[in-house]
Amino acid sequence: MAADKDIEKQVEELLAKMMLSEKIGQMVQINGFKGKIPDELRQKLREGKIGSMLNEIVPETSLELQRITREESRLGIPLIMGRDVIHGYRTIFPIPLAQAATWEPSLAQAAARVAAKEAAHAGFHWTFAPMMDITHDPRWGRIAEGFGEDSYLGSLFAAAMVRGFQGDNLSSPDTIAACAKHYVGYGAAEGGRDYNTAYIPENLLHDVYLPPFKAALEAGVASVMSAFNEINGVPATGNVHTIREILKERWKFDGFVVSDWNSTAEMISHGYCEDMKDVAKKSITAGIDMEMQSTAYSDYLEELVTQKVVPEELIDDAVKRILRIKFKLGLFEKPSVYSAKLPEKPDEESLALAKEIATKSIVLLKNENKLLPLLKELKSIAVIGPMADDPYEVLGTWNRDGKIEDTVTPLAAVRDMVGDNTEINYIAGLPYSRSKDTSEFAKAIKLAKKSEVVLFFAGEESILSGEAHSRAFLNLPGAQDVLITEIAKTGTPIVLIVLAGRPLCIGDIIEKVDAILYAWHPGTMCGPAIADLIFGIESPSGKLPVTFPKTEGQIPIYYNHKNSGRPPEGKSLTMIDDIPLRAYQSSLGDTSRYLDIGFEPLYPFGYGLSYTQFEYSNLRLAEDKIKVSDAIKVFVDVTNTGDMEADEVVQLYIRDLVASLTRPVKELKGFKRIRLKPNETRKINFELSASNLGFHTNEGNYIVEAGKFNLWVGGDSNAGLMTQFEIVE
Ligand code: NOJ
Predict the structure, then answer these.
(1) Which among 133, 207, 260, 514 is annotated as catalytic?
(2) Counting atoms of ligand 1 from 1, which one is nearest the CA of 179?
(3) What distance in Å separates the CA atoms of residue 476 and residue 482, rounded to the nearest whole number?
(4) Cα(109) to centroid of ligand 1, in Å?
(5) Ligand 1 site-directed mutation target among 292, 398, 470, most atoms within 8 Å of CB
């Protein structure tokens, strides 16, 4: 790759040769054609009026578009071709939320590496990923695409994925440019309804929503995408404060910012812009360098510059940013190396990685009487449920280029796993997850009755999560719960495997089943990963990257909430049925909880069981008083007290007890995935810089205050040993 200095020189030289219309052309991105290239488009390419395309999936068309641009336009500036490669290109990895459940960012990095390679071979230079929107709301369909509710965990995954896509050298033919999205606050949509308004105070913006973007920048991300939502009354796409001031000026981001699809034009619907000319003006002023799909820039920027409403320096700055990335990608030398032929099938190594990630992402939520793993040879297993043999739905949202013929379904994998002496009988029971058709129920119940165990594959189809696919009810859709309830009456033990794009409210069903594996949408290698866990080839080790509510009424719900002045105490009782008539108001106690659902979640953040047990002991600190410039050294012993070798995710949380702005009851500050043999004890150490234990003020300034902190280490955000330390002046 050319050195940065050389690239800057090339950028300047090229810019000096460009006419205003050509500069603006670089800032225009249009959608692909998948067919005959219209004459009008050929002409625009020749005139240098298009800088980028997305979704051009026919390799021959892509090559021809590039050829016209390179050979027939005055300056021959290559197009940058983008695609949503969100959790895999051909090899589909678990959805990003599931990847976060591994708590092993290096795996997400490796997956992004594979995705980059496959996408590059299909002719793409740029992915619109990773998506790093923190959310506290599982109703929001796009929770599937991000890393959950915690900005520390999310930041590590965001940076890892950027490194995976981009590698060490953006110009190498198997790396692609990444895009940190959606900037910013998109996950804070009111009510979890996609595209909805967000109100985010400045301190929370900095403490919760911005850190993953900062981490992506530090990992060298090439581009950032502005979000659809408005923040505190200003659309994210026209937001001078977040884009121009924070991202470009304060953080010195030198890549480019692309708007989301039509998000510039939508500033008219927001009530922020009068017309498309106003859209162009406000977008460029805020710092949008490239406009995706809508045409405010191509229609009005030239006029705005000529009329001196928009200074040409803003255009120059935007174009430099875009050219910089095109040079870094090596597109001027060889854009077509990205269009080598994509292999017929995903390779074995990629599939093995997809399986490893899926295996480590699956969370064991319940395991009554140690029903799992199924170690002894059984005569008969019933496989039931609408998600048991569906090669499409398990791939999850944003599967654009994966192929269902590559998917190994749970049914296929279970059949493959058992010996000749075990009979596997299958009935879907319901044709799809939302179905209420009970006509197959009798057969399913009969099958359950004559089997030794039922593996019930429930969940939601991939279309029920993702963009614009928010849900107000988070139950298992259709008649799945009715079928499970009926099967439970047979007395045959049930293993429930949930395949979903978000936390579902499965509280009503928990008591009816014996074991639960929460498998998310695991991708191409769904079946083999689940089968390995069911039959004990590996122990589950996924941990929840998001809090599971008991019911939708508890949302927003997240572990790092504030304490309030009247925090709930003791057990989270549901008391509504026991309240006597005409009871006096305060006789029930005045604390912050719901009468009908208590205050605790169904499962806390960080939660996940194993086939073995881990014991934590001997939590100690090197020193319990440290200065802001120091690091606090934490040690803990973790022992595998069960009888199976397994992974555990050791988690460290803190609480700043008194501060000038109140702090959350817990904050994740470190974690480690470790593997222990039975009876093995490992001494684990963490080193926390005190300078990382601060927070932002309402003005957005970062401060670290002296004072006492609690510190916990354990296997989830509730469990753990506790100690205290103090930051001193
Ligand atoms: C809209 C989505 O919000 C964004 O995430 C995606 O990258 C673009 N469409 C392009 O497909």
Answers:
(1) 260
(2) 7
(3) 10
(4) 21
(5) 292
CA-wise closest residue to 632 among 505, 499, 532, 727 = 727
Question: Do 609 and 549 meet the contact criterion of CB atoms below 8 Å apart?
Answer: no
Statement: 348-534 belongs to CATH 3.40.50.1700: yes
Q: What are phi and psi of 415, to 5 degrees?
A: -60, -40
The enclosing H or E element of 682 equals strand 681-689
- Find out if CATH 2.60.40.10 is the number for domain 614-728: yes
Q: What is the DSSP letter of 603?
A: B
Name, in order, each residue with C-beta under 8 angstroms of 504's C-beta and a sequence gap of 6 or more.
Answer: 138, 459, 460, 474, 475, 476, 498
Cβ contact 297:329 at 8 Å: no
Average pLDDT, the chain: 96
3-state secondary structure of 175: coil
Whether the pLDDT of residue 216 is over 70: the answer is yes
Q: How confident is the model at residue 570 (pLDDT cuts 50, 70, 90)?
A: confident
Whether 614-728 and 348-534 are alike in CATH topology: the answer is no
pTM of the model: 0.98
Q: How far is CA 594 from CA 555, 562, 605, in A?
A: 12, 16, 20
Q: How far apart are CA 214 and CA 627, in angstroms?
A: 25
Q: Encode 187-251 in three state secondary structure.
A: HHCHHHCCCCCECCCHHHHHHHHCHHHHHHHHCCCCEEEECCCEECCEEHHHCHHHHHHHHHHHC
Mean pLDDT of 119-138: 96
What is the band of 577 on the pLDDT scale with cuts at 50, 70, 90? confident
For residue 481, give both structure tokens.
């719960």
* Distance, C-alpha 314 to centroid of its chain: 33
What residues flank ligand 1, with Cβ below 6 Å?
Answer: 84, 128, 181, 260-261, 467
Residue 340: pLDDT band with limits 50, 70, 90: low
260 is catalytic: yes
Confidence at residue 696, expressed as pLDDT on a 0 to 100 scale: 98
Confidence check: pLDDT of 1 > 50? no
Look at ligand 1, atom 7, and give the residue with the nearest C-alpha: 128
- Amino acid type, 488: A
What is the separation of C-alpha 242 from the centre of its chain, rounded to a whole number of angstroms? 21
Distance CA 290, CA 296 (A): 11
DSSP element (H, E) containing 647: strand 646-656
Q: How is the chain split into domains, by residue range?
A: 348-534, 560-600, 614-728
Asked if 649 contacts 684 with a C-beta cutoff of 8 angstroms, the reply is no
Q: Please report, in angstroms and rounded to a whole number, the separation of the first and last CA atoms in the chain.
A: 47
Distance CA 19, CA 15 (A): 8
- Write down the residue that tokens 């026919």 correspond to: 58
